């Protein structure tokens, strides 16, 4: 469909979800759904208040490591 190729068939299947718009991973706490299980797990941390990534500089916590990395650039 888009011309991308993948070494593993599982990666292709995962990528194809982008084109179908399918969002099979649903949050049990709210109405949100996700195409990727990792995004669902990260989202669920918001409900449980489990934010395991802590800034060593100021002590602020984050639910995703990528958010912590972006935050650290302000120090």
UniProtKB/TrEMBL annotation:
- Where does this protein reside within or beyond the cell? Nucleus
Q: Name one Pfam family in it.
A: zf-C2H2
Q: Which residues cross the membrane?
A: none
Look up keyword Cytoplasm and say if it applies: no
Which terms are listed as keywords in the entry?
A: DNA-binding, Metal-binding, Nucleus, Repeat, Transcription, Transcription regulation, Zinc, Zinc-finger
According to the entry, every stretch annotated as the C2H2-type domain falls at 1-24, 25-52, 53-75
Q: Which GO terms describe its cellular component?
A: nucleus
What protein family does this chain belong to?
A: Belongs to the krueppel C2H2-type zinc-finger protein family.
- Name of the protein this chain belongs to: ZNF22 protein
List the gene name.
Znf22_2
